[in-house]
Write a structure and sequence with these properties.
The structure is a homodimer of 468-residue chains. Chain A is of the alpha/beta class and 468 residues long. Helices cover 43% and strands 19% of the residues of chain A. Chains A and B meet through α2, α7, α8, α9 and α11 of A and α2, α7, α8, α9 and α11 of B.
């Protein structure tokens, strides 16, 4: 049966919640008195409709129905979940909760608040047991973390229902067992924010320099392992106890302006070390290094494909390493190592990646005939219309390979290549690709004759192949 | 001409530096009196040789020559760069610098220290002008950030030479203009470390919960944009001034135990806002959102391919959404949205990704004949030996597509499919793929007959197709 979420407050956060539920097949009822609410929520929803389905390699459920309610009572009555994301004012939240519980005493209520503890939210409520914090992170339609924070007055069964329900829409409920100001993640972020303000205030670094210091280094580590598992690797085989012992003294040093530090007692060292063992002890340091490196390589290659952040740095560096191949037959069009993100469930290179490496080889052939990046920018290109790939041997991550390419047909709009993928270590031919490309106008997206200078080079290469 | 780096101290950090230079074609001379140095450095180098080349879509230069020197003088004389990564003891570093400068007064020296400022390193040096901090991040062979910190006594020309040289091996030199304890990145990390210790100390969260709070939320944001650009988006069209005004009061709240905060004066607000404008003002908030979402999608999909972190969460959620297709002809084997990381320089889906979606479709056909994940785990599978793809229309990110698959041949070891990629909105056939697979033993990696129950289902599907 289709479930229903009530969204009270439809800004960027409420809109993100609405999108997360809708795109997972829930019906959503929104209450927000702002006359601009529908437009604002629509903008968030546009982003989400584009983004969230891209995470999945299968279709999401059919989208639920979105309705705007004219009252809180209309929005919440009978809903399976009520998510409150109104302005961070406690009196306002209390009024909203009273209205929800008066309309539907059974309503399960989560608050998106970062500023208030659940016990504060529950003050004066008709039924405190059904109120908790469910704190998301922007963009709510992509990031999975939800801090689920009950107070002692919250019904444990309500917390379990909440966790099941959030998991069912792809979220990760992190059960915060003790309520504290700002929960967990915002405490960590706030620490960095305060130190960042000092760095700008003292003219040590600009906002951009601080962002670069984060995203080109520990930001990438934290995006896949977080803080403690990363430091466990730094401790090496000697382990977490050793690491803390080694770096503990730095706590007394002015390495941040934020100087309130806990005493690093034997008990605290032992607590951290044993929690770290429970978290990561099933993996050796070498295993953790391999896992970290695989994650970092895949993430940085992903950013490279997007042309952003650390991926942009790799693209820039790569430009200094590449040279357009000499027109020859065969032509050396690829020489590279197979990266970890190209393998699949069979443990070898996915067949799609053969298509990619031959596509990359074809780009080099194009560059050699004058159809390079500048040419593409000028509005012309070659598009592939047919490929036949023969898979002759398995290819694995870490193997060094090359591609040799021949132009086998080159008249008019046609550019036909025969590529061979070769293992560098022993010369084994691992796959071949017969690829037919046609010259196109990028404006009309239709085929057209190439200009004389390109046609001449294509013909020259085709003639070279006949002499092979 | 091949350049030479001298590495003084060959542990995890020194080894990472050695690998970065070697794999970029430099010769490397290492001095480390530890009798285990060669083994330890070899382990780092093994990781690096596997990992670093995977970032690039072309070959790195031929690896340089690695030699172990028996003295500092032998290692550094005539080297283009000297990188010091010895134990964090100032007296030891001073002795090392004295020995370097006595052997080669022209040596350019960078120190990997996080604990000392360059002016401290320079105390008592024969030539302070050629000493600076060049602080890397583990793993040095993958992460690009190097904090380059001169003191006022460092020769500005030496700093420029250093930056050029680091960039040439794919690193990102962040010039820290004012020396401070722990430079920039470690100040931010140390703030989080201190707050993290409090959270464990006070039994608010375990190390694993803290890591999850980071890697499922702001860690992913910081890995691509850092702190300030992310917060700029949170400020919305109203901008950074508005954002700081809104969240500034939180600085007075106990949102972290680390309570030393700068006064948020008008001057500081203005400084942050104008630096943020200089950094990101050329992009609208909508542009920044799209950029952020593209990066997050690509990174999370990369982690999904690795089966780790937030990518593991998506895989688990996806399992609840997928069903094995009913054996039919045609069979609906794919229904999905084209993600942003599948496009290429022509702005449309890369031809390799057609291979991937047809490979995914083939996995569904395999599941339908009983060759599912469990079957693969039991040691048998189907491998593709030949595909012919016809590209009929361009496919773009965000488009919803489906694949219909038919088994066109199914005797003995053979499983032949004809797949059609179809645009969901209008039914246009965008590509077709004729795919021949053979049944294999994953132990011998050779073809073999499938068991009776699989063969029967393959034959059934092939017969259905004849009836089409």
């Amino acid at each position: 049966m289709t479930r229903t979420a009530a969204i009270i407050g439809g800004g960027v956060i409420g809109g993100g919640w609405a999108a997360r539920f809708l795109l997972n097949g829930w019906n959503v009822r929104v209450f927000d008195p702002d006359p601009q609410a529908e437009r604002k929520l629509g903008e968030v929803l546009d982003n989400a409709r584009r983004a969230l389905p891209m995470l999945y390699d299968c279709a999401l459920p059919d989208e639920g129905t979105l309705t705007f309610s004219s009252s809180i009572a209309e929005a919440v009555t009978g809903a399976d979940w009520v998510q409150e994301s109104v302005t961070e004012r406690l009196d306002l939240k209390h009024r909203v909760f009273a209205e929800i519980q008066s309309a539907d005493p059974a309503a399960l209520i989560g608050s998106s608040t970062s500023g208030f503890k659940p016990s504060e939210l529950q003050q004066g409520a008709a039924d405190p047991s059904r109120i908790m914090v469910t704190h998301p992170f922007n963009p709510v339609y992509l990031l999975p973390l939800i801090e689920v924070v009950p107070s002692p007055a919250t019904d444990p069964a309500a917390v379990e229902t909440c966790k099941t329900l959030l998991s069912s829409v792809g979220l990760y409920p992190l059960h915060v067992r003790k309520e504290i100001d700002a929960h967990i993640a915002d405490r960590l972020m706030e620490a960095v924010w305060r130190e960042g303000l000092w760095l700008v205030n003292d003219d040590i670094a600009t906002t951009e320099e601080i962002d670069n210091a984060i995203r080109y280094a520990f930001g990438l580590r934290w995006g896949q392992m977080g803080l403690f598992e990363t430091f466990r690797i730094a401790g090496g085989e000697a382990g977490m106890r050793h690491f803390i012992g080694q770096f503990g003294p730095a706590l007394a040093w002015p390495w941040t302006k934020l100087m309130d530090v806990p005493d690093l007692t034997d008990d605290l060292v032992e607590k951290i070390a044993s929690q770290s063992d429970a978290q990561s002890g099933h993996l050796s340091i070498r295993d953790l290094e391999r896992k970290r490196d695989g994650n970092l390589i895949a993430m940085m290659r992903a950013l490279k494909q997007q042309g952003n952040a650390s991926g942009r740095l790799i693209l820039d560096h790569q430009k200094t390493l590449r040279a357009t191949p000499d027109p020859a037959s065969p032509m050396l069009t690829q020489s590279r190592v197979i990266p970890v993100d190209w393998t699949d469930m069979n443990g070898h290179m996915n067949e799609g990646r053969y298509g990619q490496i031959f596509s990359d080889a074809a780009e080099e052939v194009m560059a050699a005939v004058g159809a390079d990046d500048d040419y593409v920018a000028s509005g012309f290109s070659y598009f592939t219309v047919e490929t036949t790939v023969k898979y002759l041997a398995e290819t694995h991550a870490g193997e060094r390979v090359k591609v040799l390419s021949r132009v086998t047909e080159g008249g008019g709009k046609k550019l036909r290549c025969l590529h061979e993928l070769i293992r560098a270590s022993d010369g084994t031919v691992m796959a071949t690709c017969d690829q037919l490309m046609l010259h196109v106008s990028l404006e009309t997206r239709r085929t057209c004759e190439p200009p004389e200078h390109v046609a001449a080079r294509v013909a020259h290469l085709a003639a070279l192949n006949e002499g092979d």
